[in-house]
Amino acid sequence: MRATRGAVRAYILAVTLCATLCVLPALRPGADTPWATLGLLAGLYLGCELPGRCPFFGRSAPVSAGSFFPLLLAAAFLLPPAAAALVAVPGSLVGRVENPPAAARRVWRAAELALTVWAASRVHALLGGPAALGGPGPGRLPDLPYALLPACAAALAFSLVLAALDGSILATAEQLPVRRAWSGLLPHSLGPHLVHGLAGLMMAVLWSSSYGPLAALFVLLPMYISCWVFAQYHREHAAHRATIRALVQAVDIKDTYTRGHSERVGRASVLIAHELGMAQDRVEVLRFAGILHDVGKLGVPTRVLRKDGPLTPQERRVIELHPEYGHEIVRGIGFLGEARAAILHHHERLDGSGYPYGLTGREIPEFARVVAVADAFDAMTSTRSYRPGRPVPVAVEELKRCAGTQFDPQMVRALARGLERHGWSGAASAVTADDERVPDDERVPAPRTGGAGRDADAGPDRGRPR
Fold this sequence. Notes:
The chain has two domains: about 1-240, no CATH class; about 255-440, Orthogonal Bundle (Hypothetical protein af1432), CATH 1.10.3210.10. The longest helix is centred in the middle third of the chain and has 42 residues, at about 215-255. The protein is elongated, with a radius of gyration of 29 Å. It has helices at about 1-25, 35-50, 70-80, 80-95, 100-125, 130, 150-175, 180, 185-210, 215-255, 260-275, 280-290, 300-305, 315-320, 320-330, 340-345, 365-380, 390-400, 410-420. Helix 7 packs across helix 9. About 60% of the residues lie in helices and about 0% in strands. The chain is an all-alpha fold. Keywords: Membrane, Transferase, Transmembrane, Transmembrane helix.
């Protein structure tokens, strides 16, 4: 662990030295540094970061440290590389830091952004970007659309360098393979950074025009507000994911036998949803439904869930209440929407023999019919400590055999199509039990006949409701 911390410190020091070398030309005596423009841009960036330290804003500050990139890109377009690199330093050194050590994180962020802005400004200058911006004189109009080329190239360089540095510090700190640490960073950031580059170009064009810096603020303010709205959305989305994750972890702790099952049911539900052509917002809610379908087990006594012997009729009735318990647990979570009905009704069957209410056919909500198929599919294909998982084709045939009585045929066909297109990796090798005990759902004679076999959730002849 000490070696890891030492490596991180050494890496931060190396990046800081590189950043220092990049900004030195602007600090040398006789350098033609436009200090007025640099000071104003640095002050604006500092002003964008200060709300993050203000108790009034708390965690709802408009932007977090280093996130208001349009202003940094405008600096890359307006200033020489060495001067542009200095713009990010004051704001990064005082910006909000979520986790300790705060000092090291601020130094890292300042050095990282200085290098990133320097690279973007260098690319912009090499492609003739400053000349394309025009100037305050009546004969120096911006050269559009040519100015878009160096601006987009600079935004690309900004994104590449930032992704490389973020991935490298992650690989150093977490001892991850570099490829894994960099995975996804550039694809997720490139689009937003190009948009930030266009906003920065608008600011730079207005700044260089006869209207001056004051006109550029009319671009700055709307972009700052839009960044705040975007950040609020991501914070809310992160809170949603944290809520889901906490509930799933609680279920896994209580019923270790089905560990990993919930996540796979969520994946299978999404596979079905895509084949049905659902809108993306509904797909996300359906994924939540699949992940949380068994959250009601939190209301079932642990001694019943983990009981080694056969279940009594009373204990069976208690377990059959878990959909209702789950609905009660999540009913106040507004963002779940239709997922709440899926949690309540995912054990209903088309022929009316399910629970808790014995709904039939289209009375069963669409999301519940999807989750029922995904739930049964994962139960049959997952390897358990006492038996291997069924091959995917065998499980699909079993679902088709029960379609029309237990499962919605449309959902079964959608799952089959999705599996043909995308396959199903990892299910047959995923062990969902931590011990060698035989689950209760295969010990008790079934109260019903017919169905998709003896696997948990797979058919009505299972001994224990899941």
